[in-house]
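Sample A.
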Amino acid sequence: MNIGLVTSFITGGILMISILALHLNLFQNANQTTMDVLSMDNLKAVVEVVDHDFTKIGYGVSANVFTTADSNQVTYQSDIDDDGTVNSVSWRFNPGQPNTQTPNPNDFTLQRVVDGKTLNLGLNVTDFKLTYFTMNGTATANPDSIRQVRINIICQAPAAYRNRFAESAWEKTYIPINFFLK
């Protein structure tokens, strides 16, 4: 047998295996990136609605802005659509109510309720935490002394890739200007 021919086959085989391994690695990275982007897009959609509502806390209201304030739920008064009518706006996160529309067991239902009309934001929210502060930054649970609201949101991809759910997080503290216009 020709030693040059055997060497060529071995070299060609190693090269073929290397190309296949590279292709597999690229495929896995592309899938993981897709899941990461899905997670970020879901978070962005939730944040747009949250930001719209929370910047208007207390708008058009003279007193008693907050009626409910705990770590998973807030209800406040605001002229949310700028039509001269004060609305009741609630955000509720129920970790006991899974989102059954996806295979992700970690996502739950986030609800936005305006004057009794409920909108379920089934966008793979896995955590939604609210923390309240006074003007000087001291944590408070008293609705009358709330002047700042911090929101933490975590979204995951709707499906796992390699037993991992891609995850995106967002945090913001709102200090509504409407508190200072009274």
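Sample B, a different protein:
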Amino acid sequence: MTKLNIIYASEMGTAMAVAEDVEVTAKNNGIDTELSEMDEVSLESLQDMARVMVVISSTGDGDVPMMGEEFWAAIEKADIDLSKMKYSVCALGDKMYFNFCGAGKKIDQRFSELGATCVVNRHECDNGVDGWDIWAEEVLRALGY
């Protein structure tokens, strides 16, 4: 069975905790997973990933958290082929801010522009993590697990 890559970027630790919970959910379903901080993922390794779940919070005005800044800077300019990838994004934010879930929207849009296929629409959590578990189960099914 194809490995599931779970990639996260978190400012205060909430997105990281959700990503860890997603990993536990996947492993409880017998899925081989790899959990990675976003900045630890190279563009080369990203191109080899077939099934990806991204959990990302936003900071500032919808910016990517510090642990994903290098990844974002690279992928924003990259000309790579992600057509082998199926993915979904869980974005954490706060509707009090103008650019709600901005980092998740950026990653989602960029993956799509580079040819990846979104299997479940982006899930946006407002000031918390409500619904991440339903999103995770739906994505796992859509990815064929």
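Observation for Sample B: The radius of gyration is 14 Å.
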